[in-house]
User: What shape does this take?
Amino acid sequence: MSDRGRTFASDNWAGVHPEVMAAIVAANGAHVPAYGVDPVTEAADARFHEHFGSGAEVFLVFNGTGANVVGLQSLLRPFEAVICADSAHINVDECGAPERFLGSKLISVPTPDGKLTPELVEAVAGGVGDEHRVQPKVVSITQSTEVGTCYRVDEVAALANWAHGRGMWLHLDGARLSNACAALGVGLGAFGSEAGVDVLSFGGTKNGAMGAEAVVTFRPSEAAGLRYLRKQSMQLASKMRFTAAQFVALLTDDLWLRNATHANAMARRLADGVAAVDGVVLAYPVEANGVFVALPPAVTEALQAEFPFYVWDETTGVVRWMCSFDTTEEDVDAFVELVAEVMGELG
Assistant: This one.
């Protein structure tokens, strides 16, 4: 483990933003009702409505996998399937939780850039009406994607139109929605009902919070059922005010945007720096707070001894470097210098 303090392993490795921590401390006082019937949760709901509209219903949960499972569960029956990119978090990094707890099949689609299109989805959405086959019911996308690319608003709307035209739903995994919106210069609500999204997971943990995620539904008829699904899925917090306080902080005075904008800027600085190093090849466009590059294995091993990070694809040598709200220019410049040094010796 590096003694440098900050790494490029994951935005999950970062601590809690001071304004978020202060909000948690401020919520720690007198006794208040449990399970979300408290003034802080009420304030968090109001902030969500400011961003996503008064028709949005919000259900706070502990983690991203829980948010995805609960949200998808509100859209599916066990004989129905979810279409997603092969790199999707629900397909790769949730230990089979969606399939186990929903009883629904995931149909994964190879993509060149982590993004689904109506054409890609159309190619796997067969078997409708055939009782021998699972029925495609939900298209699930990730914003920003697992490889750091971002869907434009019109691209999401096109997928929503395709899905709705076939009696299907659109789910959005927004673990890094803040980063995508910051990169695209749009508000959070741009990827809600305005774009045709039916249910989304909104991430706080990767953007300065501590174990705070949310399920946001734009289907009022399903809101009542989500209350029970959240509890049954073990995602209902008793001391909800401490989760809610984090969203009050993030969604007030654009803290979510400030954090995401900074993380994105550090990723851009990192990408520009390493792109000038001979032998370093960017694997995907850098559009949010992730940088993906192909490196020789010996270089990766040497770098990881100083700055821990993850190998994204062992077969191609692509690694992932993530920037966070607390990444500094000094962190980036020191890492770029190290990359240049190691590539010169081992590349």
Observations:
- The longest strand covers residues 135-142.
